[in-house]
Amino acid sequence: MNRLVIIGNGFDLAHGLPTSYSSFLNYIWKNFSETKSNPLFQDLFEIDHIHFRGNESYNNYNEFCEDIRFSFRKDPYYFVNSANYSDKSFTLYHKRSSSKCVFSFKNKFFELITVKSVENWVDIENIYYQVLTSMVKGDSVFSQLGDINQLNAEFSQIKKLLDYYLNKEIEQKYFFKNSYEDSDSIADLFTYEYKNLGKDSKNSFFLEFAPDYRKELIDFDNLFLGVSIYHQKCFENLFVDFNYTSNVNNYVSIINSKKVRGYGLSSQIQIHGHVSDDTNPINFGFGDEMDDHYKILENTGDNKYLENIKSFMYFNNSNYRKLLNWIETKDYQVFIMGHSCGLSDRTLLNTLFEHPNCKSIKIFYHQKADGTDNFTELSQNISRHFNKKSMMRQKVVDKSLSKPLPQNVRYQSKGV
Predict the structure, then answer these.
(1) What's the CA gap between 320 and 332, in Å, rounded?
(2) Organism's domain of life (predicted)?
(3) Per-block average pLDDT, block size 10, for the chain (416 residues)?
(4) pTM of the model
(5) In the chain, which end has fewer C-beta atoms inside a 10 angstrom radius, N or C?
(6) Cα distance between residue 331 and residue 329, in whole Å
(7) Which residues contact 404 (CB under 8 A, 6 or more apart)?
(8) Cα 204 versus chain centre, distance
(9) Which segments of 249-331 are extended strands (E)?
């Protein structure tokens, strides 16, 4: 029984890594002074720097707005609120300046996700798809974003800036080389211990699978009955990593260094790429070809509407093919760790979940400090990836047999 471990951003967040979209957006405002020298920042704004000190730093966009509105509240400065976002966005002018504009958003897609982040949690990939489908339908909801050429150009700027952020603030700042002792609360989740299933007919492990799969589970369990626990590959853990960081690679190294049968043999596919890697560039876009609007995108006959659809970016290397080949080889149980199972990865997740070799889906949910958790939300999200709902109910392991994902593992900072 192999394991397919689906890793999402929540896995990085569980390690205290600032990889959320909100952390990324806040980083831009904290480093607002880089708008004077960094081309990636200059793509975002129209700024007349003679009106700024040059060392501005804000914790977030709200703080930026409060400071700017206070600092430039008097004549000859004046604000014009956005026609699309009211007072949540604005352009700042100077009456006697030759350029007149002191500050405005140049990248209109960045302006949109910034305003959305103030209103609620933001998913950049989903917002891109909303704008994309709005454009192809010809409505005016996002008319301020121009045409498909402008949208793709501005989305590309955000992608480059995200890669820059993750490289500078994650990859260059942390040592991703923990020992087993530093990571055992998570590393031990991948072990398998002999259960004597042949004589224990009421073992709860049976309940993680369909009733007609008992014989296969007993046969698998018997592989662990023996004198030597070393140097025998009884199963594989394939980490399908949707993140862009080096976090998971640390666990692959830890597990394989154990050389103990109960840990199996681990490998990793960074299906959405890795930070600053030209051979495996980050795959940032949308991946729901099952959506009703996707056919409309195809029928335009214009490939620009498909430019950031994930399926086409999978062709940049052989990772997707390796994954498809792997799921064909043997039965597997899916572990969900930190992945929201949202619609932006629907096509791929449907392939993995509805495959006949997928025998079970086990959720490692996020248990919050107040005692609440996201198990129900995750199970609801998973259901959207199934065309056959009866199959979903058979495969998803119930909460009583699931576990929260530990939140206590940390990496040493490089002190950069």
Answers:
(1) 17
(2) Bacteria
(3) 98 98 98 97 96 95 97 95 95 84 97 92 92 94 96 98 98 96 97 96 98 97 77 86 98 92 94 96 93 93 96 95 97 98 94 98 97 98 96 98 98 88
(4) 0.96
(5) C
(6) 7
(7) 364, 365, 366, 367, 373
(8) 32
(9) 265-270
Instruction: Please list, in sequence order, all residues whose beta carbon lies within 8 angstroms of the beta carbon of residue 76, skipping any fewer than 6 positions away.
Output: 94, 95, 96
- Give how far Cα 123 sits from Cα of 21, 286, 321, 384, Å: 7, 11, 27, 18
CA–CA separation, 320 vs 324, rounded Å? Answer: 6
What are the backbone angles phi and psi of residue 394, rounded to the nearest 5°?
-75, -30
Q: Kindly give the pairing relationship between strand 358-365 and strand 403-404.
A: parallel
Report the alpha-carbon angle 22-339-18, nearest 5. Answer: 30
* Together in a domain, 12 and 102: no
Using alpha carbons, select from 337, 343, 409, 416 the residue that is nearest to residue 374: 337
Helices then strands, counting H and E runs in the chain, come out as 16, 10
Residue 156: inside a domain? yes
Residue 58, token pair as written in the block: 């804000």
CB atoms within 10 A of CB 178: 22
Domain that holds residue 199: 2-17+178-281+316-404
Determine the Cα–Cα distance for residues 222 and 227; give it in Å rounded to an integer: 12
Residues 11 and 31 in one domain: no
- Say if 309 falls within a structural domain: no
Q: Are residues 244 and 353 in the same domain?
A: yes
User: Looking at the chain, how many residues does it have?
Assistant: 416
Are 277 and 249 within one domain?
Answer: yes
Write out the two tokens for 40.
Answer: 């990636």
Half-sphere exposure at residue 375, Cβ-oriented, CA atoms within 13 angstroms: 18
Residue 363 and residue 403 in contact, taking contact as beta carbons nearer than 8 Å: no
CA triple 237-242-243, angle to 5 deg: 110
305 contact partners, CB below 8 Å, separation of at least 6: 132, 135, 136, 148, 297
Cα gap 306→297, rounded to integer Å: 7
Q: Whose structure tokens read 């990939």?
A: 125
